[in-house]
Amino acid sequence: MEKDEATKEFSIMWVDDDLDFSRSISSVFEKEGLTVYHAKSGKQAIDRFREKAPEVIIMDMHFATRSGDLTRGIEIANRIKSINKEIPIIAISSFVDAYRSKALESKLEFKTWV
Asked: Domains plus CATH for the chain?
């Protein structure tokens, strides 16, 4: 039997290559009754998004790359948006200023909270 919208389970996808941090933050969401799907790489995020269709994505924009390229998280967000332009993506990063200009260049909406 399919759940109606009022009782539908809310799910998020947490995308971060820091597994310890991911586990810690996921437990907070799970205690609130949310289903949390994890992805630790860009490829895994795209595959899991297609498979699980979460209602929202929270992702670290700075993935560990050998080049230190700051565009990797934005590239992943853009690829997910090409699948579903309506999906909310909440970007987190300690490199806010660097990502703001990159996000604007790629036409992603970017907001900063302190």
From this structure: 11-105 (3.40.50.2300)
